[in-house]
Amino acid sequence: MRLLALAAWFVLAIAASDDVEDLSDKLRAMTTGQMRRLLSQLDVRTAKCGNDEDCLRQTFAQLPKAELLLALMQNQDALQAVLRERPLDELLRLKRSGPGSAVDTSVLPHSVRALTKRQLKAYLKELGVSYAVKQSKVQLHRLAVRKGVVAPLTELVNARNARQRMEKADSSGGGPSDQELRGRAQGLLGQGEKQLKDGNAQSALAMFEDCRKVGKMMKSAEQAEQIENAALNIIGITYGSLGRYAEAIEHYEQALTISRDGGNQKGERTALDNIGNAYAALEKYTEAIEKKTQALAISKELEDRVGESDGLENLGNACGNLGRYEEAIDHYAKALTIAQEIRDRVRERKAMDNLGSAYHGLGRYEEAIDQHTRCMELSRKFEIDLSAEQNRLRHLGSSYAGLGRYNEAIDSYTKALAISRDTNGMDNGATDQKAEGGFLSSLATAHYNSGQYAEAIDRDKEALTVFRALGDRKGEWSVLNHLGNTHDRLGQYTEAVDHYTRSLAISRETGDQISERNIIGNLGIAYANLGRYEEAIEQHTLALKISRDIGDRPGEGTDLGNLGIVYGSLGQHAEAIDLYTQALAISRQMGDRNGEARHLGNLGNAYRSLGQNTYATDHYTRALAISKETGDKTGQGTAMVNLGSLHDAKQKGETFIKLPEPAQFVPIAQAQPAKPSQPAEPPLKPEATPTKGKKNKKKKQAPKSEL
């Protein structure tokens, strides 16, 4: 009471003072004990002063008196609180930084205020909040408010109190009813899910484990199984959110066993789906397909059409990730049929989107465009979903680009970019900014492919600004690499080397070896274009080593082809032919028809340089046939130019020999490759720069090593 009276006197005295400097007289009238106690309430340490009055007065003199006076004079509520004999900390809710910084601890519920200082510190530590060792309970309350952890702190305390009440009831011998236990379990699940949503995975796991304990106390085996199943599945999901998929699968397997033992088919299907998701996250798509197939069979047995549609979608996704697009299309088409039968518009649109992506993966761009366009029209009838619209425009742009219809691709990307900019500043602003950077990059690629290099550079520079602002290092190195491609295409090889070098440094930070290898390959091409062949060979050899180390067969083929080009530029055509032949074998093995045509063309160049015009004609002819088959207009043009050059040479009397009969000579391009396997939504990349075999050309433009 004496301290409260002192505080009230101090506030009233300050409020009545006309001059801030008059505070010194009032402070001088206070005893040493009064000053120390008041300084303590103001969070000012006085241990160094002891009973030294001069030291205490000097400490007061260092306080921002004018700001303190202003804060107390303006804080009428705090003054009234003191006059009503509330705790003094309600008066002094302010930092020494000045007025307007008061911390309102009244938001803390009674359950938190009732904690001891030790308990409070333990909870703050669990929430990742740092605190000083000697902070008082009041100071810890303020810290909790300032750090914005009142809600999770309250939930943790309430969960602990519920657990203690449960344990107390158990020890008393009369235990709670199943209904009460179910309520507690559901409450713990709800609190844990909120913790998980807020990013507090460890706190969520603790609550889910408590939920399991509650379930085991239930008398009804059926209800106990339901609680245990729900807890095990959500624990698995939580471990999955942490990237700990092995532990997630372990918990899903436990849920699966319980469901099978209890004859709970729905629980069995849920567990199988979750296991499949975890395997898919680990990129073990074969195992994922196995589990998803079992889950789909249960949905069919239960005659659950919604579950069947979802199961087909999941199977399609897994097949698509394996490059098995024909199977994916079959699953998506069945899912679409079911969605239309049950009039589920959401699933219908999703199936159309997935079908479009699978057709794109097969290079069937017209069918992909048809699906995405129909989906967009259907969507506009039933909803206004800007995020979905933006995503479909992205797919459309990618498919138009695949057909070489770059103006339509640019139009789609421009519309998607406008949506991402319009939605910036909303709750998902950071996501939309990242999307904005992606669309700018896609626009740059479309401009590049249409020969609009100045526009490509402008869009890439805008994208670079966005990615740097977001701290997106992957986006940054990708744009720098593409800028290098554009400068290389413009013949600005020194600028290209500069951009590739900066891109390479960032990609190495991310540990992405595939990207590192691609950029090294581009750097090698730029060196070759500068005539710095030794450095080019060094870069391509390094890229080849990385490709082999990580088992990247398509990358290995690209690197071998690039090395062949450099050796050809040095006039070492026999070495070049050996390298092209190895690259060609890999393209056939991987079913890469475009790569096969490119390597055949480069082999034709090498034979042409050796004066073996008949072999050159054979390889160019086969390259042209494949380019026509795949619809590669650039490849067709290159092959026709090269064949035209040979025709001119023949007219001028150059030597052409007759090839051996088929029994003695097996054409190099005779093998039938498998269909190409590529991601469902491949990023747009610059087209490869063709090598044109002109008779007296010493230096050849190398094809791009692409991301």
Structural overview:
With 707 residues, the protein is mostly helical. Among the domains are: 2-102, no CATH class; 104-165; 176-294, Tetratricopeptide repeat domain (Serine Threonine Protein Phosphatase 5, Tetratricopeptide repeat, Alpha Horseshoe), CATH 1.25.40.10; 304-383, Serine Threonine Protein Phosphatase 5, Tetratricopeptide repeat; 578-707, Serine Threonine Protein Phosphatase 5, Tetratricopeptide repeat (Alpha Horseshoe). It is 73% helix and 0% strand. It contains 33 helices and no strands. It has helices spanning 2-16, 23-28, 32-41, 53-61, 65-74, 76-83, 110-113, 117-126, 137-146, 150-172, 178-197, 201-216, 221-241, 245-261, 265-281, 285-301, 305-321, 325-341, 345-361, 365-382, 386-402, 406-422, 429-449, 453-470, 473-489, 493-510, 513-529, 533-549, 553-569, 573-590, 593-609, 613-630, 633-651. Helix 11 (178-197) packs parallel to helix 13 (221-241), helix 12 runs antiparallel to helix 13 and helix 16 (285-301) packs antiparallel against helix 17. It is globular. Residues 1-24, 64-101 and 661-707 have low confidence and may be disordered.
